[in-house]
């Protein structure tokens, strides 16, 4: 699954620079995660870095975008052009 940022976001700016895929950006009101770029840090780290640094714990899995670890790894390969 891709991750998502909920309305509890306080715009603290710590998640955006942690994302290795540049999937996080400032939205109209809060930060947003582009699901086509989010791999939950699969291929980069053992755990999603944005979740690790979020002070308000507002970055859960997005239940509307279900992806297996294999699918996330494939997305990582496409994003990084690693084969």
Automatic annotation (TrEMBL):
InterPro entries: 4Fe4S_Fe-S-bd (IPR017896), 4Fe4S_Fe_S_CS (IPR017900), PSI_iron-sulfur_center (IPR050157), YfhL-like (IPR047927). PANTHER family: PHOTOSYSTEM I IRON-SULFUR CENTER (PTHR24960:SF79), PHOTOSYSTEM I IRON-SULFUR CENTER-RELATED (PTHR24960). SUPFAM superfamilies: 4Fe-4S ferredoxins. Residues 1-29, 31-64 form the 4Fe-4S ferredoxin-type domain. Keywords: 4Fe-4S, Iron, Iron-sulfur, Metal-binding. Pfam families: Fer4_7. The lineage of its organism: Bacteria, Pseudomonadati, Pseudomonadota, Betaproteobacteria, Rhodocyclales. The keyword ATP-binding does not apply. This is YfhL family 4Fe-4S dicluster ferredoxin. It comes from the Bacteria.
């Amino acid at each position: 699954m891709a991750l998502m940022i909920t309305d509890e976001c306080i715009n603290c700016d710590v998640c955006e620079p942690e994302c290795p895929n540049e999937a996080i950006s400032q939205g109209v009101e809060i930060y947003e995660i582009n699901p086509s770029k989010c791999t939950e840090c699969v291929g980069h780290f053992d755990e999603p870095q944005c979740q690790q640094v979020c002070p308000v714990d507002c970055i859960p899995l997005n239940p509307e975008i279900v992806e297996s670890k294999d699918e996330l790894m494939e997305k990582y390969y496409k994003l990084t052009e690693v084969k």
